[in-house]
Design brief:
Low-confidence stretches: none
Order of helices and strands: HHHHHEEEEEEEHHHHHH
CATH class of the largest domain: Mainly Alpha
Strand order of the largest sheet: 2-3-7-6
Number of strands: 7
Shape: globular
Number of helices: 11
CATH architecture of the largest domain: Up-down Bundle
Largest sheet: 4 strands, antiparallel
Distance between the termini: 31 Å
Number of domains: 3
CATH topology of the largest domain: Butyryl-CoA Dehydrogenase, subunit A, domain 3
Length: 378
């Protein structure tokens, strides 16, 4: 697809701050807990404001500014590919709405949305999206964490989550748990931290260290009833439907981040190893993946329920990033690990995309199920 004038403005604006992210990449990878030197940077401000709904922005200055319209999926993937060309790990360390914001956009009422975006407006507040659990992974149907209603009408949260981005430093986020044993009983709530009964710790990470994956545990954590998301929606729309809408968009974003990383790797090789074999073929693959990603995003903007297309995009992007990083280190030779720390970092990061928002096998299942539905087989 050809980019519209607005989409090209988005692309150019995001590309203009990619250098800022790359300059911070190695420092954040070395110590993702030391973020003070990076807070308030132009890239982080652009990212946070651009991901905030227009009506909640403290200013209308933004990379993604369509005169009041919220960013489309096409604009989100354009931005993600350009930002990842700078560095995906540095981007993931950015305080801002992230996946929690997508859930609040879908499930939150006006007061909850205003509260959430007000909390993160300072540019120093990380958010979290706590769904995956230690024993059952990302299979929401097997979720064990629970919301129990008490005599006051509020809720008490008990359970544990794992692989939560920015979970140990996030101070507001979305946590998923059961109110009953059926699928309609899976609900989400806003959670302010610190909170009595909640503990979190960062997990060791090999790649994409800026994401700060963590585990969280909840023991009798109080959740005010007004913080339960989706109460204004029908029973079928207030739980997993909202989670899936959020995750489908995020799968597109992850695929776009992977493609942007692959392009960064290709251009790095072209600069330092101009005679490398296979560069033209890798360039053609990346260009094709980018074109397919834009077409997929346009299709989702038209019909958000074609979720299997998001799975295909994420599957393609994550595989391409891993293969591009392996190719780059092969052509660069054994000394590349020491002489080219960005290539070494991107090699680790590229493997991380595989595990974000569902592994490749999970994406293949979604893709097969979607294909069967569209062809009248269930």
């Amino acid at each position: 697809m050809e980019l519209t004038e607005q989409q090209e403005l988005v692309r150019a604006a995001c590309a203009s701050v990619a250098t800022d992210l790359r300059q911070r990449a190695l420092a954040i990878d070395a110590d993702p807990a030391d973020m003070e030197p990076h807070l308030g940077s132009v890239a982080y401000t652009f990212n946070r404001v651009g991901a905030t709904p227009y009506r909640f922005r403290e200013s209308q200055w933004s990379l993604i500014d369509s005169g009041g319209a919220e960013p489309s999926c096409v604009e989100r993937v354009i931005a993600s590919m350009e930002w990842a060309y700078g560095d995906a790990g540095a981007l993931m360390a950015c305080p801002g709405p992230a996946l929690a914001g997508l859930a609040v956009d879908v499930l939150g009422n006006e007061a909850q949305q205003e509260y959430f975006y007000g909390r993160i407006a300072d540019g120093r507040t990380w958010t979290f999206f706590a769904m995956t659990e230690p024993e059952v992974g990302s299979d929401a149907a097997q979720m064990r964490t629970r919301f129990e209603r008490d005599d006051s009408g509020d809720y008490v949260l008990n359970g544990a989550k794992r692989y939560v981005g920015n979970g140990d430093r996030g101070t507001i986020g979305v946590v998923w748990a059961r109110t009953s044993d059926n699928l309609l009983g899976i609900r989400a709530a806003l959670l302010d931290l610190p909170a009595e009964g909640c503990t979190a710790r960062a997990l060791p990470m090999l790649g994409l260290r800026g994401a700060r994956l963590s585990e969280m545990s909840f023991t009798n954590v109080r959740i005010p009833a007004k913080m339960m998301l989706g109460e204004h929606l029908s029973a079928s729309r207030r739980g997993l439907w909202g989670a899936m809408r959020s995750l489908h968009t995020m799968r597109l974003v992850v695929g776009a981040l992977a493609i942007g990383t692959a392009r960064a790797i290709l251009d790095y090789v072209a600069e330092f190893f101009p005679t490398a074999r296979g560069a033209e073929t890798m360039g053609d693959r990346i260009a094709a993946a980018r074109a397919s990603m834009l077409d997929t995003a346009a299709a989702i903007d038209t019909d958000p329920d074609r979720a299997h297309l998001c799975a295909a995009a994420k599957l393609t992007g994550s595989r391409l990033a891993a293969e591009a990083s392996g190719w780059a280190l092969a052509v660069a030779g054994p000394g590349a690990w020491a002489d080219h720390p960005l290539l070494e970092k991107w090699h680790r990061d590229a493997r991380g995309f595989e595990f974000m928002d569902g592994t490749s096998n999970i994406q293949r299942l979604h893709l097969a199920q979607g294909y069967l539905r569209e062809n009248g087989h269930g």
